[in-house]
From TrEMBL:
Originating species: Streptacidiphilus jeojiensis
PROSITE patterns in UniProt: PROKAR_LIPOPROTEIN (PS51257), SBP_BACTERIAL_1 (PS01037)
InterPro entries: SBP, SBP_1_CS
Name this protein carries in UniProt: Extracellular solute-binding protein
Keyword field: Signal, Transport
Keyword Heme listed: no
Entry-linked Pfam families: SBP_bac_1
Similarity field: Belongs to the bacterial solute-binding protein 1 family.
Superkingdom classification of source: Bacteria
Signal sequence, renumbered to the chain: 1-20
Coiled coil, from the record: none
Length: 429
């Protein structure tokens, strides 16, 4: 798992060296500096240092060439460390000017006063070109604090060849259909039909399918232990007990093992995000990329289907002076432009956040084209700063429930108690 999963579970804050800081180390021009005065801004990029960062570095160079008075100090910060590291830096007035922030961090950073609103700035001049739900997810208290850079959601990945061998002509649209297809694959192909990644983020479609979520932000109520949520988690339990479905694996290597088996054709279906398509294509079962099918996650008993929307926003530090903020806004506009997003998508195989970036060159990647088709069904996260942190207690009890250590209701009740500590003003069931 990489995106959308809360980083709030990180341990104590990590000290930030002065050399990595933005405004405090960038030779501030002062608030009265001329617009064309040389300025250096710092950008913390949280992308994968090996596979994705080279593309972003090349774009930084292109930006500097187009804007000779602005220098961008590029710092690649491991994603797992970035949330806590930024909080520490912002609290000591030494944060980077621009951060590539997980969508789940944006509202929390905005609430803490770490981010500057971008409404009406160069950074948000093209907001109408972005997918509406992504702009909503980058906003807090009526203001836009981030500009969507890349996005993702979960879909049902499946092996078309295994489907054809089993006589399955279309992807399942309900969990009951998926159960039947998994059993058929096992019978006809001799491999498991489905494996579930036992993690709270991947359980969200089962809640959405029953018309619920961990919380109801509009009524300020905790719903993770509601009757609908119980039904959703019981659906997972039912799946895990079904023929042709891989038994629960909670070992440390469970995720990697699942991906290896799917890539080599030993599993027919998984719920997964577009960040894994490049790795899937490396598998022996997908040397022909067209063998990978991607469909919307199956619907629950309500007929509803949906998956969480993840991804990253570019945000600007509120503690920077006027000159640095202006340069940061121009940089954000450049990095999230249609042309830059086309470059990022074609080089990194990630999903653009604006409709005009889905060019023929981008959608020639079958994985991107497939996920674009289901992105509209994605469910934005509530603009609740504590929301991402809720995945952790939910995950703790989800594993106990699926392992048979707790009943579904007891486990979700325990998760509700833990979530209540994060949002004490919310009502409980």
């Amino acid at each position: 798992m990489r995106r959308g999963i809360a980083a709030a579970v990180l341990a104590a804050a990590i000290a930030v060296s002065a050399s990595a800081c933005g405004s405090s180390s960038s030779g501030s021009s002062g608030s009265g500096a001329k617009a064309d005065s040389p300025v250096t801004i710092t950008w913390w990029d949280t992308s994968d240092a090996t596979n994705e960062a080279p593309t972003y570095k090349a774009l930084v160079a292109a930006f500097e060439k187009a804007n000779p008075t602005i220098t961008v100090k590029y710092v690649n910060v491991p994603f797992a460390d970035a949330q806590t590291k930024f909080q520490t830096a912002a609290g000591s007035s030494g944060a980077p000017d621009v951060l590539r922030a997980d969508v789940g961090w944006t509202s929390g950073f905005a609430k803490a006063g770490y981010l500057v609103p971008l409404d009406g700035t160069a950074a948000t001049a093209d907001s109408s070109s972005f997918e509406k739900q992504l702009v909503t997810q980058a906003s807090y208290n009526g203001h836009q604090y981030g500009v969507p850079l890349v996005t993702d959601t979960l879909g049902l990945m499946y092996n078309k060849a295994l489907f054809a061998k089993a006589g399955i002509t279309a992807a399942p649209t309900t969990w009951d259909e998926l159960k039947a297809d998994a059993a058929l694959v096992k019978q006809k192909d001799g491999v498991d039909g489905f494996e579930f990644n036992a993690a709270s983020y991947y359980a969200m479609p089962f809640l959405y399918g029953e018309g619920t979520d961990m919380i109801d932000a509009s009524s300020q109520k905790i719903t993770v232990n509601s009757a609908a949520a119980v039904k959703g988690i019981d659906t997972i339990k039912s799946l895990l007990a079904s023929p042709g479905v891989t038994k629960l694996d909670t070992t440390a290597n469970a995720y990697a093992t699942m991906m290896d088996k799917f890539g080599s054709g030993k599993i027919a279906m998984i719920v997964q995000g577009p960040w894994e398509t490049t790795n899937v294509y490396k598998g022996s079962a997908f040397t022909d990329k067209s063998n990978l099918g991607v469909a919307q996650v199956p619907a629950g008993s309500t007929g509803k289907a949906g998956a969480p929307i993840g991804g990253h926003n570019l945000v600007a530090y509120a503690g920077a002076d006027t000159a640095h903020q202006a340069a940061s806004e121009k940089f954000i506009a450049f990095m999230t432009s249609a042309a830059s997003q086309v470059t990022i998508a074609t080089k990194n195989a990630t999903l653009p956040t604006r409709s005009d970036a889905y060019t023929s060159a981008v959608t020639s990647n079958p994985g991107i084209a497939a996920f674009q088709a289901i992105l509209a069904a994605g469910v934005p996260r509530p603009a609740v700063p504590e929301y991402s942190s809720m995945y952790t207690p939910f995950n703790t009890d989800l594993l106990k429930i699926l392992a048979g250590q707790e009943s579904t209701q007891t486990g979700l009740n325990n998760a509700s108690v833990a979530i209540k500590k994060l949002v004490p003003s919310y009502a409980t069931q």
